[in-house]
Specification:
Helices cover 35% and strands 13% of the residues. With 462 residues, the protein is α/β, with parallel strands linked by helices. Bound molecules: glutamine (GLN).
């Protein structure tokens, strides 16, 4: 009850698209009864959690922040949502995002932008962006109204807003958490992400949602072993030795637009880890710089194909134009998608033309392989990698939307995107406040399924 009230009261940040008041109240009441009869289901029983509005929720609107799905209520729950409900969690609502998760700011939603909670003045027109595309989920956590939130991460959409909002954001290993019911962006890179105030809370949520799901054929079949909150591979953080842990600093992440403040913080933490016994050394991952352009080709090709399902016939927005079926498709799609979605569909179809396929799509797949090889090679020298998450603190909304290229993946996703190419786990951890009083974060990456070790180091530095 208190949490729902807070959700409603914190409307000024525009973190939620839908507050599922009735359902949440019922779930909370059931949880209370279980508690009274000492039958709580898990450590998440009764705990308020928010879900990004690109995860299907049974009979609750799932809009992707787009006019196309403005009135769409799915007939089933995404696996992630179902597992949270099974653990007793209370799903308080659906959070704001960039339309169809395309973006890095949570500024391109038909419901308006989400505001960062940090230094936010309720009466001001300008504010710091929340980052994106899971900005609503990050703000639901940072504002204190939810214990945790589910986001999605294709190129950084969980870690980027986590970094700007000062919360922990985990992109799990590809296939560790089911994508069933997550509306796809790039099928081969999408993963549900987890946002919470600290690493232990992330672990609790991961333990509830991870593991094989027969409804997602790309989900790993290996049984998932729950991670102990005092992460198993390293001793508890309070008396931890990180002695001998090999941490790589990939020099290519020191890129053109990295702010001095982030660079200094990165240096400082690397130095501290070294002083405390880790073996910290520079490593090279020469194909990092190609990740963004390679991603944009693969993303646009997959978007072109994934968006074909929205034709205004079976579900989604239907235009009021019945001159011909063709016309109905065209007008529905033209009216209901924003320019970013339309641009990606057009470019993707261009890349996929018979005469271009080899030159763009196949070429991008080869570059992806080189980026993955960089990771395979680096694990010979390092167990974990330490990098920035975002290049700066959260930009001001007025600056962010003025950039001539609104589709700013190149700048925003530089450090986060490579992990999606390789499918590996990565976590963003808040470190300190900038001179302006905004959160600054670092990212840790590890090899596939190294979550226990990754999260142990995250806990050590948080
Ligand atoms: N910014 C990237 C994009 O717009 C990544 C978004 C995401 O991870 N969902 O595609």
């Amino acid at each position: 009850g208190a949490s729902l009230k807070k959700v409603i009261e914190t409307k000024q940040f525009n973190a939620f698209i839908t507050v599922s008041k009735n359902e949440a109240e019922k779930q909370a009441e059931a949880s209370l009864q279980r508690f009274k009869s000492k039958q709580s289901k898990s450590d998440l029983d009764g705990v308020p959690i928010a879900v990004k509005d690109n995860f299907c929720t049974k009979d609750i609107k799932t809009t992707c922040a787009s006019k196309m799905l403005e009135n769409f209520s799915p007939p089933y729950n995404a696996t992630v949502c179902q597992r949270l409900l099974d653990a007793g969690a209370v799903l308080v609502g659906k959070t704001n995002l960039d339309q169809f998760a395309m973006g890095s700011g949570t500024v391109d939603s038909i419901y308006g932008p989400t505001k960062n909670v940090w230094k936010c003045k309720a009466d001001s027109n300008d504010f710091h962006i929340a980052g994106g595309s899971s900005g609503g989920s990050a703000v639901a956590v940072a504002s204190g109204v939810c214990f945790g939130a589910i986001g999605s991460d294709t190129g950084g959409s969980t870690r980027n807003p986590a970094s700007y909002c000062g919360v922990v954001g985990l992109k799990p290993t590809y296939g560790l958490v089911s994508r069933h019911g997550l509306i796809p962006l790039v099928n081969s890179m999408d993963v549900p992400g987890i946002l919470a105030r600290n690493v232990d809370d992330v672990v609790s949520i991961l333990n509830a949602v991870a593991g094989h799901d027969k409804q997602d054929s790309t989900c790993l079949t290996k049984p998932f072993k729950k991670i102990s909150n005092y992460c198993s591979r390293l001793p508890p953080a309070n008396k931890m030795g990180i002695k001998g842990l090999k941490i790589g600093i990939p020099i290519e992440y020191n890129c053109e637009y990295l702010s001095d403040e982030v660079l200094d913080m990165w240096d400082e933490i690397a130095q501290t880890l070294q002083n405390e016994g880790a073996i910290v050394k520079e490593v090279s991952m020469p194909h990092t710089q190609y990740s963004i352009v390679c991603y944009s080709v693969l993303n646009q090709c997959e978007v072109a194909s994934n968006m074909a399902r929205y034709d205004g016939i079976e579900y989604g927005y239907r235009a009021d134009d019945d001159h011909s079926t063709e016309k109905l498709y065209a007008v529905s799609r033209r009216t209901a998608f924003n320019d970013i979605v339309k641009n990606r569909i057009l470019t993707g179809n261009y890349f996929l033309l018979g005469r271009n396929y080899e030159k763009y799509f196949n070429q991008a797949l080869k570059v992806r392989r080189l980026i993955m090889n960089d990771f395979d090679n680096v694990w010979e020298d390092a167990q974990l990698l330490l990098t920035p998450t975002t290049l700066t603190e959260a930009p001001l909304y007025s600056d962010f939307i003025q950039k001539t290229n609104r589709d700013q993946c190149a700048f925003q996703d530089f450090c986060t995107q490579p992990a999606n190419m390789a499918g590996i786990p990565a976590v963003s951890v808040p470190i300190k406040l900038s001179k302006n009083g905004l959160p600054l974060s670092l990212q840790i990456m590890g090899r596939n399924l190294s979550e226990p070790m990754l999260l142990a180091l995250a806990k050590y530095i948080e």
